[in-house]
Amino acid sequence: MTPSTPPNDRFLRALRREPVDRTPVWLMRQAGRYLPEYRASRKRAGSFLAMAKNPDFACEVTLQPLARFPLDAAILFSDILTIPDAMGLELYFVEGEGPKFRHPVRDAAAIARLGVPDMETDLRYVMDAVRVIRRELDGSVPLIGFSGSPWTLACYMVEGGGSKDFARIKALALNDPAALHQLLAVNTDAVIAYLASQLAAGAQALQVFDTWGGVLSPAMYREFSLPYLERIARELPRGDGADRTPLILFGKGNAAYLDDLSRSGAEGLGCDWLVELGDAARRVGGRVALQGNLDPATLYGAPDAIRRSVRHALDSYAAGNGGSREGHVFNLGHGMSPDMDPDHVAVLVDEVHAYSAR
Amino acid sequence: MTPSTPPNDRFLRALRREPVDRTPVWLMRQAGRYLPEYRASRKRAGSFLAMAKNPDFACEVTLQPLARFPLDAAILFSDILTIPDAMGLELYFVEGEGPKFRHPVRDAAAIARLGVPDMETDLRYVMDAVRVIRRELDGSVPLIGFSGSPWTLACYMVEGGGSKDFARIKALALNDPAALHQLLAVNTDAVIAYLASQLAAGAQALQVFDTWGGVLSPAMYREFSLPYLERIARELPRGDGADRTPLILFGKGNAAYLDDLSRSGAEGLGCDWLVELGDAARRVGGRVALQGNLDPATLYGAPDAIRRSVRHALDSYAAGNGGSREGHVFNLGHGMSPDMDPDHVAVLVDEVHAYSAR
After folding, report:
1. In whole angstroms, what is the distance from residue A43 CA to residue A271 CA?
2. Are B156 and B233 contacting, i.e. CB atoms less than 8 angstroms apart?
3. What whole-number distance in Å separates Cα of residue A30 and Cα of residue A117?
4. Residue of A nearest to B271 (CA)
5. Which residues of B are marked as active site?
6. Does B283 touch chain A (CB under 8 A)?
7. Measuring CA to CA, which residue among B172, B83, B42, B113 is closest to residue B91?
8. Which residues, including other chains, have CB under 8 Å from residue B148's CB and lie 6 or more apart?
9. What is the CA radius of gyration of chain B?
10. What interface predicted TM-score (ipTM) does this complex get?
11. What tens digit of pLDDT does each residue of B96-126 get?
């Protein structure tokens, strides 16, 4: 990136629902195993966690997709589970099995012992990564910081890893809801402090991943996930007016709650592909920007099919947004997978920019 | 079951939206590994498939939950993948990995070779099981026959087994939609013939499991799943008036399509727990009966929590159905799991009957 390149602020403008020359695009998990250069970095670092905990490696892989594709935002390379790790649960990874905790939290006594980590000591490696990446981006595109949502963190903390049925945390919700609320409260305090620290370190937008909100019945979502997302949107200090740092609430399975979420005070909502984007735009009624929502599996299609699907999403958003493309950040409805073809990503990014510029 | 017991027709009456003395209840996968007697039968048979393919074993395990709990319907013990197995794909199971096919169908040429199996030869073991079970039930409760949906069968046929991202079938949908439609058409012909044969063999209600419809974007659901469900509802010959054999369309993730599905001609819709049951009742507007929709994980809760959740579902349905419990078949929103406690099932069934009788 040469110093003469003007800063690309499409992403931040779209989140403020201001006019843009073309729809901005970034992709969840855009820095990942589908890139050979990422796999090489990971090999040198030794593991995913070794990369995430080393600011130079984190910066290196954060920048890799930007060197290949004209993406409109960078996202901090990190994990959604850094907070519980810093709380003492000890995050580790088993190849092919996803994240796990050595010390899961299963009862009220264990929950009562949890505290909010200190951001500049326990999670300093994250803040250092933000600082290094901001310096290296040198204003070229905005940097997004992020966290898991209180409910999603709680899922991993109680289950001790991924789950198909979320049996343990749902049993806790049914049998001892007060204990679960205590866990969600400490998680919320920690998420707010964590995002505020990332902002102070240089993050220019913040995203909360409510990956597992969509496994809950409506009654449980409204009791155990939504109120904590709303609290973050309300309490996270992030400036005012044009200087306000936008907050994006992403949730898998959040289509039924977009109206509620659009009144939370968040600036943007990220949605999955299980809702037609135009319907999502109608539901949020111009109160927030929308990010999404292409089915990631679209990247398994041939270039023609990818271009067609991109145009469908762009047109659908505009149709639901009074004919305007304002307030749309193009993204997938979920993260990328290791077996995706980088050439297909290039097609997607190109089509978003080319079609939306017309 | 003594011959003097009057036949229990609550389930069929509820599907016709007629008054019942209490809300009928059955549970998806009610004959399953959570029962020690099931595990003993399976051990004797040698495997799941050996049980499913032997009418005496299939009958034995079908009746097991009815001996324990006052359930209002029996469901044929079988697998949703019998049709593709009979088409020559060769179903097999790997412990802990779910169903797989030895000969998946991946391209237009393989799809063109598929034909509708002969029901009374290739799938005779299923029809024999229906006949044996009907004889043994002796009119005590109705017997439900079932099939996978055309889309759900296609998922397994193309992927070759379960999938997290459905990459292969979504790529086929994007790159060669005509071939996928051909696959869905032959599956639909086969499902209609299969359900008609089960009806002829004695099944008194029929359910289609669209387990994977909910992984599709709205545009893809409306192209690749919904029209084939509608064709089954329209074309399956099942009698008229009070003699009509009811058809239930169950789908995970079908909340957004309940209005469409309620106009398909099916008598009942089964829904998962991601929709408030009262909202579902409002959406179907009395056009069909509703089956569901308790989160199966509720069975991991303590008895008090189970009773509370059952009452919530019953009250929610009635609130959305003009204050009436008519047209509700209580069920889970998905199948039971092996680690569930049979005593908790007893609590659930008891509470459905006790609370709805008030």
Report:
1. 33
2. no
3. 28
4. A217
5. 29, 33, 42, 79, 156
6. no
7. B83
8. B80, B81, B83, B156, B191, B208, B209, B210, B211
9. 19
10. 0.96
11. 788 999 999 999 999 999 999 999 999 999 9
